[in-house]
Specification:
heterodimer; A: mainly beta; OB fold (Dihydrolipoamide Acetyltransferase, E2P); 2 domains; five-stranded antiparallel β-sheet; three-stranded antiparallel β-sheet; B: alpha/beta; Peroxisomal Thiolase, Chain A, domain 1; ten-stranded mixed β-sheet; two-stranded antiparallel sheet; 14 helices; 12 strands; 35% helix
């Protein structure tokens, strides 16, 4: 993994930035240069919703290289509250507890390590919502 | 454009060929096709492959394979479209003959997966998907299949026992196929008690990747009886991220490519006698059959759950075992399908032969439906 290849995606992955068509309002993740709905080339960066529901899901038992340490892990198709769909690992839950329709929220996690001296990649995974706690101190 | 026919075919067994290289496999299949055709040297060579740049670190396969054949000097091209590479290369070769550019063309596909570790194979099979936002999540190609599998069963209320019958039938057919990787029967119980690959998808519902090569010689049609003509070839693509598809259990590329192909051949689905489908997994095969119009949406499994799978005007599906049991030598798979259809139409299918087929169709996917290539062959 080269540094620029990782770096140029980091904003979109760390903060769930997609694109919004300035003509028709269609939302895209990952980003697109051309709106597939209306053909416009005028698209702006757009912060996606960080919560959504699981549409379908699986458990990866035979992982690709650099993902072995996480296996078995859940990957789901999540529909965000703004209608955009995203693929993501689902964490902080046992695979047996995952269900279609389940509410999840984005969280910032380690994705993979490139050997012992390469880049450590971070990005989004989703988890069951953690209720915000009032600061009682 | 001229009509194009298949003059000769050749293939190797799909297997783990530990002692043989990419070139060894390619040359075996290509020489068989050249000798089978008996029309002389090819004027151009089209090579289909998907994994050599990753697995062997080898580029420029066109020149490499032409040279290995002893044909250095011949124009040669490499075509990559994931597991549809073989079919797309075939279409490119057909266009070159149809246009009049060449009279004799060799199209050969080759893949050597066994040079990679299991983790590397999982990476390789995910490479037809977007690396930055799909493979990045850690999902594999089989994981993507599993996502649509779960959704399909929920949406249509279809049982896994019915969908997995596709794999049972494939193994029944492969029993008589000398080039199959897994030429033996597997019971439904055995398939559905195998370990999970990616829930709910069992390992024995997935195609096994293998090493292999398949080749054809094509030439302008002569209009003689028994000749195998290319009746149609069509290609379509779809959104590469399944997150953007309005319906994840429909392959729009399959619908578009098959509609175009049936129009080009001037036939209807009922005219098709044999079909080789891209059953990367059981669910992919079922959805492919539905989207080509051989079954209603949600009813694809009924093609395999009856006592007599080929009865009632239904086409014979995967008569040599398909990706499931013949095996899946990824970049060569599309050419295996085309060679198998040609063998059926010529009456050269041995124990896999069906009764006097006239039309055969091969369907290939690159990625999870982002590329679909359809080929229809006809016995003159």
């Amino acid at each position: 993994m080269s540094v620029p290849r990782y770096w140029r995606e980091s904003k979109y992955r760390y903060r769930l930035i997609g694109k919004r068509c300035m003509r028709c309002g269609a939302l895209y993740y990952p980003r697109r240069a051309i709106c597939t709905r209306c053909g416009s080339k005028e698209l702006e960066e757009h912060q996606l919703s960080e919560r959504g529901r699981i549409v379908s899901w699986t458990v990866i038992r035979n992982p690709p290289k650099d993902y072995e340490r996480f296996a078995p892990y859940v990957v789901a198709l999540v529909e965000l509250e703004d209608g955009v769909r995203i693929l993501s690992q689902i964490v902080d839950v046992e695979p047996e507890e995952v269900k279609a329709g389940m509410m999840v929220e984005a969280t910032f996690r380690k994705i993979r390590e490139d050997g012992t001296s390469g880049i450590i990649e971070y990005g989004y995974k989703f988890r069951p919502p953690v209720e915000s706690k009032q600061d009682s101190s | 454009m001229r009509s194009v026919s298949i003059a000769g075919v050749g293939l190797t067994q799909v297997s783990e060929h530990w002692e043989r290289s990419l070139a060894d496999l390619f040359v075996e299949a290509a020489v068989k096709a050249i000798e089978d055709a008996g029309v002389g040297d090819p004027e151009a060579v089209y090579v289909a492959n998907s994994g050599s740049s990753y697995i062997q670190g080898q580029l420029n396969l066109g020149a490499m394979m032409a040279d290995a054949l002893g044909k250095a000097g011949t124009p040669a091209f490499t075509v990559e479209a994931g597991a549809a590479s073989g079919a797309v290369a075939f279409h490119e070769g057909v266009k070159a003959v149809a246009s009049g550019l060449y009279d004799i063309v060799l199209v050969g596909g080759v893949e050597k997966v066994s040079d990679a570790s299991p983790e590397e194979i999982a990476c390789f099979l995910s490479m037809p998907e977007d690396q930055e936002y799909t493979a990045y999540t850690g999902i594999t190609n089989f994981g993507l299949n599993a996502l649509i599998y779960r959704h399909y069963m929920e949406r249509f209320g279809v049982r896994q026992e019915d969908i997995a019958m596709l794999a049972v039938r494939c193994h029944e057919h492969a029993e008589g196929c000398p080039h199959a990787m897994y030429p033996f029967k597997l019971s439904l119980e055995r398939i559905l008690s195998s370990p999970m690959e990616a829930d709910p998808l069992h390992i024995l519902e997935c195609s096994g990747t293998g090493d292999g090569a398949a080749a054809v010689i094509i030439q302008p049609s002569k209009g003689v009886d028994g000749e195998v003509e290319v009746a149609a070839y069509s290609l379509s693509t779809d959104l590469t991220h399944i997150t953007e598809r309005p319906d994840i259990v429909t392959f729009e590329a399959v619908k578009r490519a098959s509609e175009k192909a049936f129009r080009m051949a001037g036939i209807s689905r009922r005219d098709v006698d044999v079909v080789e489908i891209h059953d990367e997994t059981t669910i992919t095969g079922i959805i492919s059959l539905e989207d080509m119009g051989f079954a209603e949406k949600g009813k694809g499994a009924t093609l395999f759950t009856g006592q007599e799978p080929a009865a009632g005007g239904k086409p014979h599906v995967n008569t040599f075992g398909g990706l499931k049991a013949r095996g899946n030598p990824v970049g060569a798979t599309g050419l295996y399908q085309i060679v198998e259809i040609a063998m059926q139409l010529e009456g050269e299918a041995g124990r896999c032969q069906v009764d006097k087929p006239e039309f055969g169709l091969a369907q290939s996917l690159g990625g999870l439906g982002s590329t679909c290539a359809i080929t229809i062959l006809r016995r003159h």
